[in-house]
Design goal:
131 residues; 2 helices
Length: 131
């Protein structure tokens, strides 16, 4: 199901898309994102065209093979929470209404595993060996 997408206000050339699938999956990332803008760029005849995708959270990706446009996230996939909040705030339908079912929403958490620090006073660092 293709949905209309907006044209970037200050485009850097290229051909803006007017519609695409509402979600994008990057094969090199953990989260599914909501699509905001898509542009096809062709530098010159020597190079193949490539696609630039911008998401509602501010994330962007370029290329030809590393991402896939999808109509709904998989049942175990996690949708970017920031994309969902911003997209619904501007009046777009929720991911659950697009998919017709529950969609997991969340983010990626960075966790320190430094060897010289303890995570809490009572718990040893999970990487440290305890005797």
């Amino acid at each position: 199901m293709k949905v209309p997408i907006s044209k970037e206000k200050r485009g850097n050339g290229g051909i803006p898309w007017v519609a695409c699938e509402p979600f994008v999956e990057n094969s090199r990332a953990a989260l599914i994102h909501r699509v905001r803008h898509v542009t096809t760029h062709q530098i010159n005849d020597k190079y193949r065209p490539h696609i630039a995708v911008k998401c509602w959270c501010g994330n962007s990706m370029t290329g030809t093979k590393k991402f896939t446009f999808i109509s709904a996230p998989g049942t175990d996939d996690v949708l970017c929470a920031r994309c969902e909040v911003i997209a619904t705030k501007v009046g777009l339908p929720s991911a659950e209404s697009i998919a017709g079912r529950h969609v997991h929403v969340g983010g990626v958490v960075v966790v320190k595993h430094c060897r010289h620090q303890k995570t809490t006073i009572d718990e040893p660092n999970p990487i440290e060996k305890t005797n």
